[in-house]
DNA sequence: CTTTGTGCAAACGATTTGCAGGATG
DNA sequence: CATCCTGCAAATCGTTTGCACAAAG
């Protein structure tokens, strides 16, 4: 999330037993430098905008490898596409129902949830709050969609 | 969710301006009678197990029609598949990370969330808590997966 | 009778996979 | 140099769509 040096990024990858290839490095670095939650399509376009860096299949492979070792996470908030996030510490998500943009909400934003409310037998391990609403871009006078 | 008479189901459909076809009726009734959140594949298998009732395309069409008028909702909790739920009143979800089963959590299970915690500019309209963990089936001695 | 829905099969889009050549450690 | 990765293209899987026929109101 915060700025990492190239060396630190390489170290992160190696520490998880991943070989450091230019493609993997590029994918991970790109994700670390964003706070939106790009789809594969967006990621690929961004990576290759200054010349070819990685193929589509390799982006998928890289994302899978990074996800398996816990360096990134997948975010599923809309139909049909997976998004990816290099912020792996727990947090919540806001999704604009208008433009579809996704934004992190700090973990402590809601305070602690009541605990003993689940039916007996269910063992909770983690939870996440998803808020849906309108972002400031879409609620402004010259908004890109139907709200405002 | 609770047991509805066939007449009430037909009335529900008509009240939303939907034509009542056997297929639509079957899809809606089936969803009303379940509390898991079936995928299209599961729904289709269930509908047609006693002879042909509906084609795949029609199930998709019916689900879309029912969703557009608000009689059912789509639930997105795992990659690649949409699930459907006839419980349209607000509630939360529990997902077993082991068998993938999904279960409703009553709306009031967590008490109210703190309100003023979003960054200024975001207008929240709704929210939902997703809990991940292990269900009782999977935590039992003869469990279907790797927990226990 | 007009409008909308059904079913089939083909189209689609996101993701996965097989495989030959290439890079990493 | 053994292993793992890349890139291409073909395959897969869930979902959507075009169209001719049938059913609903």
Q: Could you describe the 3D structure shown?
A:
Two copies of one chain form a homodimer. Chain A has helices at 6-15, 22-32, 40-47, 56-68, 136-139; strands spanning 73-75, 83-85, 92-96, 102-105, 123-134. Chain A is an alpha+beta fold and 148 residues long. Chain A folds into two domains: 6-85, Orthogonal Bundle (Arc Repressor Mutant, subunit A), CATH 1.10.10; 91-139, Dna Ligase, domain 1 (2-Layer Sandwich). Chain A has a three-stranded mixed β-sheet with strand order 4-3-5. A two-stranded antiparallel sheet of chain A has the order 1-2. In chain A, strand 3 (92-96) and strand 4 (102-105) form a beta hairpin. Chain A is globular, with a radius of gyration of 18 Å. At the A-B interface, strand 5 of A face strand 5 of B. Strand 5 (123-134) of chain A pairs antiparallel with strand 5 of chain B, so a sheet runs across the interface. Chain A binds a DNA duplex (25 and 25 nucleotides) through helix 2 and helix 4.
Radius of gyration of chain A: 18 Å
Order of helices and strands of chain A: HHHHEEEEEH
Tertiary shape of chain A: globular
Examine the coordinates and then state which fold CATH places here, giving the name of the CATH topology of the largest domain in chain A: Arc Repressor Mutant, subunit A
**Helix proportion of chain A:** 25-40%
The biggest sheet of chain A amounts to:
3 strands, mixed
Domain count of chain A, please report it: 2
Distance between the termini of chain A: 32 Å
Name of the level-1 CATH class of the largest domain in chain A = Mainly Alpha
Provide the β-strand percentage band of chain A: 15-25%
Taking pLDDT < 50 over at least 5 consecutive residues as the criterion, the unreliable ranges of chain A are: none
